[in-house]
Write a structure and sequence with these properties.
Bound molecules: S-adenosylmethionine
Radius of gyration: 21 Å
Largest sheet: 7 strands, mixed
Structural class: alpha/beta
Low-confidence stretches: none
Length: 281
Amino acid sequence: MDKKFISTPSRTKEILETFGLRAKKGFGQNFLVDPIIVERAARESHCQGAVIEIGPGIGSLTEQLAIYSRHVTAYEIDPDLPEVLAETLKDYDNVEVILQDFMDIDLGEKVKELKEKYGSVVVCSNLPYYITTPILFKIFEQGKDIPYITVMVQKEVGDRFAASPNDPQYGALSVEGQYLYDVKKLFNVPGRSFNPSPDVDSAIIQFRRREDADLSIDLEKFFAFVRACFKQRRKTIYNNVKDYTGNAGQAKAAIEKAGLKPGQRAQELTAAEIKRIYLSL
Ligand code: SAM
């Protein structure tokens, strides 16, 4: 094939030079320059219907998503990039680029529209690292019809999401993610796969929505409780729950009613166990 994918280092360099672009740190821009990784991320993202991408950059991942899916909707915050994307993605007629901060969009509405048209909607993105958790929580809260979220994140953040009870990285982020999703790390990505190389290692993780996740509870309140359970990691669950409720007797009774011991620590408990305490309160 004559055509070089956008994610090849030479094509990326050429695009950046042609448009006089430099990666903007403030927008968390690190462009992927590793065709094997980009192709694999798209292929494993379950994007056969529609796919939403946050931050297409100059289009390297977008291009592979366009190849594997029926439709790509890509939200980009940088006003310099739509013009570039119109050129780099001109061979693909199934890509819609929207110049908008992803944090401002009505995700539920967009997912509904795409699902009606294309049958399924997933998310696949190389996330801007300065805003990884707010973006993921927005998807968690508004994306109940998104069965798969495949994202590049800092390795350390990926390890926290994927950690199991008793792992050193296990914490509030693990419980919140695992309450709604099965989380698995697909693979690590070395710094040399980006232009410019970030200071941290990266990983691609995948969230698969759990069909048994109980959505009848107020997620925001439950997640606030989860954070309270891990507030002082060295303290027992009893002490943290007592601080949360302000009532020692109520805290002890709720933990025991959940079939757990007040002397346990939050790091030992699964998302389901923490939810039992929450419901007992
Ligand atoms: N997808 C490209 C790639 O893999 O080469 C670029 C990834 S780069 C890590 C993150 C992208 O997200 C940048 O293009 C940046 O401008 C964009 N971005 C940053 N904050 C954003 C936001 N709040 N909403 C939408 N896009 C954003």
